[in-house]
Amino acid sequence: MKKYLLATTMIMSIATAARADVVVMSWGGDYGAGQVAAFNKPFTEQTGIKSSMVDSDNPTALIKSMVEAKNVTVDVVEVEYPDAIRGCDEGLLEPVDPAILPAGSDGTAAKDDFMKGAVTECGVATVVYSWVFAYDNKKFADGPKTVADFFDTKKFPGKRALRKQPKFALEMALIADGVPAADVYKVLNTKEGVDRAFAKLGTVKGDLIWYQANAEAARLLADGEVVMSSGSANRFFNAAVSEGKPFTTVWDGQIYDFAMFVIPKGAPHLEEAKKYLAFATDTKQLAAMATELPFGPARMSAVPLVHFFKDGKTDIRPHMPTNPDNLKNGLAVSSDFWADHEAELTERFNAWLAAN
Length: 356
What we know:
Layout: H1 2-17, E1 22-26, H2 29-47, E2 51-55, H3 59-69, E3 76-80, H4 81-89, H5 110-113, E4 123-136, H6 147-150, E5 160-163, H7 169-176, H8 184-188, H9 191-202, E6 208-211, H10 216-222, E7 228-232, H11 233-241, E8 247-262, H12 270-280, H13 283-292, E9 296-297, E10 331-332, H14 335-354
Parallel strand pairs: 1-2, 1-3, 5-6, 5-7, 8-10
Antiparallel strand pairs: 3-8, 4-7, 4-8, 4-9
């Protein structure tokens, strides 16, 4: 019954929002609120085109069902990078002409201003988000500095939290085992590499607490159930800055990826959707989004425009995935690798979890 009510609420909210000129579907919470402030409100103010936001924890599935039913009620959707690639290949998304994207604030052409891979056939990146780990700095006077420390239970005793999925966990394990970030997917693309990653995870298996919802990463740490936790960098930032939690983020071995704006095939307001997508991924708006939440802008010309968090006092630059210091041992997620291997690695991961 609960699932039915949630689904009904979602359908009603989308149907109501569909009366607006541009309906944007995103992830909700602080993130969705940040997008409304950075994208929707100024878009309507400057263009006169109404826009609204609806939330979903699985926008890709909703896009697929809408397109297949030929009943698309949203215009722009934010999805994860692999879903933008798959959705385009499956014909679920409208192609995006890079020519509609404005030049950077410094005059750099859009094709040269976006980070490598940030503009695809059917999608345009909004932010760079990052998977890191954080620890309770009240538990350790001299806390962990590297990914290898996450796996060092002798030096840093206590439970650790990881998301219950192979993605991020396997990459993290290989970096901790000494594989350079640049070589992780080359190693993971071999049987020996996969065995090595699972073996490294096995060294801390008895000290791991697994979670599924992203919000659990910070909650487990805040509640003292773990001493360190792997998760989305922005959630640890919010907990530390907005809630005063004693969290310190470790950027070594961060795993970063893009969030993408796409337009579903058959969007009811296609031309307005293109205008929104171009506006929202402009230099100024991406910088504004980074001010709302500590995500890295996907355009290089936006980075120098970001200084302080919306509280007006916290320097947000050290907390951004695209900060040069934070990228020194960073790893860009390989969407191609996970598109090819996610099913088989998930099967092995689940079997590994079930084994003693």
